[in-house]
From TrEMBL:
Main location: cytoplasm
Keyword Nucleotidyltransferase: no
Pathway linked to the protein: Cell wall biogenesis; peptidoglycan biosynthesis
The EC number(s) this enzyme carries: 2.5.1.7
Residues engaged in binding phosphoenolpyruvate: K22, N23
Annotated Enolpyruvate transferase domain residues: 7-407
Protein name as it appears in the record: UDP-N-acetylglucosamine 1-carboxyvinyltransferase
Keyword Transferase recorded: yes
Catalytic reactions of this protein: phosphoenolpyruvate + UDP-N-acetyl-alpha-D-glucosamine = UDP-N-acetyl-3-O-(1-carboxyvinyl)-alpha-D-glucosamine + phosphate
GO BP terms in the entry: cell division; cell wall organization; peptidoglycan biosynthetic process; regulation of cell shape; UDP-N-acetylgalactosamine biosynthetic process
InterPro entries: Enolpyruvate_Tfrase_dom (IPR001986), Enolpyruvate_Tfrase_sf (IPR036968), MurA_subfamily (IPR050068), RNA3'P_cycl/enolpyr_Trfase_a/b (IPR013792), UDP_GlcNAc_COvinyl_MurA (IPR005750)
Active-site residue numbers: C118 (proton donor)
Amino acid sequence: MSKIVIKGGSNLHGEVNISAAKNSVLPIIAASILSGDKCIIDNVPMLEDVFVISNILKSISADVTIDKKLNKIIIDTSNISYCDPCSELVKKMRASFLIMGPMISRFGGFKLCLPGGCNIGTRPIDLHLKGFAALGAKVNVEHGFVEAKAKKLIGNKIYLDFPSVGATENIMMAAVTAEGETIIENAAEEPEIKDLADFLNSMGANITGAGSRAIHIKGVKNLKGSSHSPICDRIESGTFMVAAAITKSKIRINGINEEYLKPIIAKLTEAGVYIRCEGNSLIVDGNRELNPIDIKTMPYPGFPTDMQSQVTGLLSTVKGTSIVTETIFENRFMHVMEMKRMGANIKIDGRSAVIEGVDKLTGAEVKATDLRAGAALILCGLAAEGKTEVIDIYHIDRGYVDIEKKLKLLGADIERVNE
């Protein structure tokens, strides 16, 4: 097992380059199934989740070549046939479900064990399955497996009860070859949705409206191979913005898209952080007195739930009372107990965390309960007095490329220790 050890109190300086978005890359890898051809994905973040979904494709006979030096993946799905992917791999992460839409689109069916992932809430798959059923599939869930079959998919109007990112992606991928037109209403608007649609369109799909509440998909007979470079990771960008704020430092963050970061920029600016955009870079200066703020997580373009734990850590160091309300995942305050071990003064009231800023955090051994919680605890360790040890960091490796190396280049006293 490995852990990350941080000695707090260092000032950060210099610049950091942001990787491509994990939440874009995973559905794009899954979408390569649709081509029955060769797809090339550039600028791929070399993360554990990327390796897992690549191995899932290998388990159904795809030829997947990963070039770690060039950050490139070449996927040939011409030999895939209808078969069950490896259950042990599927159970490792929830994003495994993203192969459902492509499989039912190309092969008329799939069988998949229920997937795993971070334990941050129930995250039901009913919206995915309702979407497949609306397209004409027969869906059955029993004995820990979900199976769907369809002789032919027919376009339909599908209204999502909640703008689920995964359901929007899965239904969109299923509908690209459905006969007629499909309209997904109350669709997720995240930038990663548009990125996936851009990739699908480059393969020959006919999708308009991605990134809005209504996505229109006109079915095509087949898709071809293509190349694509995914968008930047807005959550990694936001994490480094908070790193500057919590350490009262000034850094430059390269490879960002300001449009995707607007809700994070707005809230950090409200707290008193100085942020200036220069093209594809941000200058972030947290060396000032910050103010307590209230935050409520919402689907995009609201404040992202994936930044909630990082900002909770920041606000625990800001004098005054802040309130963070989580509306997306019911279990996304598990990091609070770990932060309290470091001296944070946080009380949970239903779906809200009431945060009283403390003068200082102190180092402790803490556990990464999920991906973003792990990142938040590293940030707290940067600001804490003394040594912080973050364990169970396999969660962090699922979503951040060399986070300790990037922070070390910025001047942090941080290292990964293998035990």
